Structures are given as structure tokens and as C-alpha cells.
Amino acid sequence: MTTAVAQPLALRGGTPVRQAPFPSWPVFGPEDEFALLEVLHSGRWFLSDRVAEVERAFPEFHQARHGCAVSSGTTALQVALEAAGVGVGDEVVIPSYTFVATAAAVALVGAVPVFVDVTPDTYCIDVTAVEAAVTERTRAVIAVHLAGQPADLDGLTILCKKHGLRLIEDAAQAHCAEWKGRRVGAIGDLGTFSFQASKNLNAGEGGFVVSDDDALADAAWSIHNCGRSRSGEWYEHPLIGGNYRMTEFQAALLLSQMRNLEPQADLRSKNAALLADHLSDIEGIEPLLVDDRVTRHAYHLYVLRYDGAAFGGATRDRFIEALCAEGVPGAAGYRPLYREPAFQERFRDYPLDSPAFGGKPDYSQVDCPVTERICADEAVWLTQNLLLGSEQDIAHIAEAVRKIQQSSDQLAG
Ligand SMILES: Cc1ncc(COP(=O)(O)O)c(C=O)c1O
Question: Residue 137 contacts by C-beta under 8 Å, 6 or more apart in sequence?
Fold first, then answer.
């Protein structure tokens, strides 16, 4: 057995484990430049061939029957919620550990976000907590496929059917992800994606709504395009909708970037498995559990669960400081969303009572202990681009964690 030798941490002036940068993001080349210039020179900058091609290719890729391309993941959620008939007075159950857009979209369509906790081992929405939150005003549940791991779509589908609720998949972080062999998105009633610059499929900005349901897909298409109908006249508007359209530039870049999606996803999966292997004998640091029914994880984030007890009692934030100093960019991630004052402000004068709150929505009542712990002490995020490197890059991540643990007495102060 070898004895661990403590080394000076980079935080204390020692040599960082990692001296070179990790792979940068986005990854692009001459084909992306050509695709953008082609649109520029065509003079057709909206609703033309590229958007039409994205609307054919992306649903096919995600095994959905229909889809429409929109301006962002946030507008995709708004369109999906409106298509599902969600509006003022309705409640939508969402996880408390997610990006703000999941909750903001609910508020923006006039409905009440009802936050519930996530499971401690996957950080995805807890189906039991959803069941407990359903009231006579619940209209929909949003399943966030956090970090690229599908939420429990079996449990949520059964629950939504039982209570007559719409299931919307927020797959902003989950391009390519699969649940029991099927790509996510149209397993629920509607699914949404983001192509914002940090995402595994990047068009700078952009989003997408998919559905297998003809009527929901038609409604989404209409809402994203000023309430028009596919077969109607340009100035005929059977529904109230907005302009949430994607531009031809975004669509061209998306199509060009889609060519990299599968090989990059495979590389992330391979490196994620390698990293799990390297980390397996380091106490106090554990990757999130991957549900057996997840047949493909998108690894938009590689999330670690940190336990300070194995690091001399150092806080998670101090560990992240040390990790960054060693040349591995880690981050703490989200804060409990329901504590953002914006929600309390927004619903202070809400015209209706919300049964989930037993009166007016009051977010000061909300307490999700798992989310609180994750945000305060536990989660360590590594972004997807770190998984696009070599085996040595992955070894460096584990080496940095190991070094910090072996020298954890230096973390104090
Ligand atoms: C879970 C989740 N939902 C929704 C969004 C919103 O996407 P966008 O930034 O494209 O509006 C994001 C993006 O960060 C996200 O991570």
C-alpha cells in the first residue's frame, strides 16, 4: 500500500495539477462560417429553407413527430405551456433545482410555479413530492432533465395520467439523452430544448418545441408565429401568439453544428465513465447516480456530490476555490430558486388564491431541504466542455481532487 504524500496546494502557492486550459467551447470551423455566409448572401434571413430543414431534422433526431424552432429555451417553455392551455390561476409543479427559466416561463404565462424538491441522488424532480403538491388547480408538471440526465419519466407519466395533467419535458440540457432507449422530448406531451451558447448544441441562442400530439404541435406552431395557422393567410390569426421565431442564421448554424452532436455526445459519455472510474476510490466525492433506465445521459454538466467530512471539514466553496486554483474550473451552480425575491414580488398582488399555498402564492413558505443542502454544501459542477478532452485531461481532474483531499489540512483559513 502506498502512503499518500501531501503536496502544497496551488491555493497555497504550490504548482497547479493542470497548467493548460481545457477544451474551449464552442467548437466551430469553416463549414459553420460557410453556412452563415450562405444565409447572409441569400438575403432570406427569416422563415426560409434552413428553419424548414431544422423543423424536419431536429424532431426526427429526437424521435418526435412534430416540432417548431423558436428563439430560445425560455420561449420554448412559454410556447409549450400556452399550447398546453396553461394560464392565469393554473399551478405548474416544477423542481426547485433548475435554471430560473423553468419557473420564469410559468410566471410569464400568468400561472403559479409550485416548487417541489428533487431527489438527493439524481437532483431531478422527486415524483413523490410532485404527487403531494397536486391540487385541483394543477395543470401541468415540468420535468427538468438536469445536467442531461432524464428525470423519472415513468413515474411522472403515470402520475400525470392519473391526475389529468400535461407533462412537459424541459430538455434544455438534454440533447441526445434517452430514457429506456427513446430520445427525450416527446415522451411527455411536449418537450423543449435550448440552443443557447453553453448548451451541447449551440446556435448562440435558440430553442425548440417537440410533440407527438398533432393538436398540441399545431397550437405550439401557431403561438410561436403570431397566432397564424399553417394553412391560413399571412394576416389571419386564429390564436393569440407572439413572435418567437428562430432566424435563418440560427437555423443554419444549428444544422451545421448538429453534425458534431453525436460524436461529441459519445466522447462526453466515454470521458464521463472514465472520470467516474478515476474518482471511485476518492472518499467524499461522488458523481450523481445515473438511473438504470437512463440509456443515454447528455452530460451537459458533470455533477459531483461533495462531502466536507472527507476533506477535513472544508466547505464546498473552499473545495471549489482549491479545485479552480489547481486548474480545474469547478462551480457551485444554482441557488434555491424559490428564494429569489422576484417570485415573491411577482405574486404579491396575484388576483387569485392558489390551493398549493392555501391562499395567495407566498414563496417565503417554501422549503425544499434537499435543494437547500445541494446548493449550500454539496454540488460541484464541471461543464460539458471539460469532457471533450483527452484521457489525460480527465486524469488531471481526478488528480486535482485527490491532491486536494490528501492535502486538506491546507484548506483551513
Ligand atoms: C433547464 C433549463 N431550462 C431552460 C433554459 C432556458 O434556455 P435559454 O437560455 O435558451 O432561454 C435553460 C438554459 O440555460 C436551462 O438550463
Answer: 89, 90, 91, 112, 354, 355, 356
